[in-house]
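Lab notebook: predicted structure, single chain.

Context: the supervisor wants predicted structures on file for every construct in the current expression panel, including those that have not yet been purified. This is the next one on the list. No modifications to the sequence; it matches the entry in the shared construct table.
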Amino acid sequence: MEKEKENIFNVPKNFKIQPEYLNFITKDSAKHYKIVPLSFKDGKLTVGSLNPDDIEVREVLKFIGVHSNIDYEIKRISQEDFDSLIKQYENTQHIVDETLNKFDIENIEEQSDVEEIIDVESGSGASEQNSTIINVVSSIIKKAAEIGASDIHIEPKLGKSSVRYRIDGILEEVTQFPKKVHAPIIARVKILAKLRLDETRRPQDGSFSANIKNNRIDFRVATLPTTEGEKVVLRVLDKSVGIRDLNESGFLKDDIEKIKKAMKLPYGLILVTGPTGSGKTTTLYSILNNLDKKTNNIVSLEDPVEYRVDGMFQSEIRSELGYNFATGLRSILRCDPNIILVGEIRDAETAKLAVQSALTGHLVFSTVHTNNAANTISRMVEFGVDPFLLAPTLSLVIAVRLVRTLYNKTGEPIPIIGAMQKEIEKRLETIPENIKKEVFPAKQFYKPKPTEDKPDGLKGRTIVSEVMSINDTLRTFILERKNDLDISEQAQKDGMVTMYQDALVKGLKGIIPIEEVNKMSVKAHEDLTEDMFTKKIDEGIQKI
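Prediction complete. Output recorded below exactly as produced.
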């Protein structure tokens, strides 16, 4: 045990903090607890501190020691030496940041043997154990990128640590580790994302980049304290995948024409709607990628910037600094924009500013969380937007959902029999005639066909959508405050294909399986009699 009172340790002149020591104590922790790493030798970290007897200081060093499998000692240093070391610390931090941002895991061997991890962990060398944890985390993120996972979940559970990937919208467990390696794995991810190691009681957000097979992949990191320990979720943003062309994004040809027509307007408001993870952002980028960036000043305000687009000036909000969607939009309007992207309308102030921006001659794109296209209008009114302002500015509403697709567009046919034929024709009665010609007479749906490389018979996702153009009739409906059902029915009379109808068309074309069609029947807004239709499909499946 260390003495209660220590003599002040004089830090040598021209002393340099080694970059690798920052893996033990981050810059934020150093500033907050007034501690700095001095040396690391024979598995012991020497730390300089202004207040070595402080309980919080000893607790955080104990935490670092346990999770890094090292010993530590504390030396009292002067305020002058601390100030000098912190400056060096900040000067050195950019070296570590650069190293992490260029984190190259191409040649790391995958670590899939749980027993091997246990054996290494029980070894005597701390550096060997740290090396194994680094390899394990590298393997987790490398594999996720290779198979096209969108998210990585590292989760603490009773007696184990679980890793799950979200692939095509579905979470799948890929491996488990002993519970005792969970904390070191989380610590490694925190180091990469430049998060505080000692903070385990509050959520944190960060990011880092990795080079995998010569592709730069960005990872957004979010931690969440749970009763079993910290959970970490990494969002995988692969820049090499790129932004889909609008013609390949899954929209019907008629809907693509509606979108392109609205894009050519000199001003107006175009909204993309749907729940979290429905493809709103990807849809917006597909549209924006078709705009003329040479003659237009296109400015975006996003949280966060997920895709970097050449020729578009992208700004990321910082809520902690008071830079949110509302304040950012005011700033953008002073930068002579032609086209504005507001990542999301979350509150009344942003909604009103977006509408005012469209009124003053700007083409404005944004997203809203609603269930369908018609519901978007009532949502904007709920935000406090006056219908007299919304009616002349709103040009187009696009509602989207993501559904899974059949592998290689092949599946086992499900013949359409008896009353199912008439029911399908009834459900597709309002769609344009050119689309009817593509699917009628309706002969069959499809269910997934298992293969060796795809046992579930599914791969990838596409969108189902409804694109509602705002014409004079619908503007009158907005002014008269008509309800969602009336607006939707009128939009269908004007040629709008609902999300459920789009799913039916894609199901009949063999793009998506019948299970995905049935899911949309529950989510569609005209679901008063769709349960009956679903039962008839199920009856047809059972007869096969």
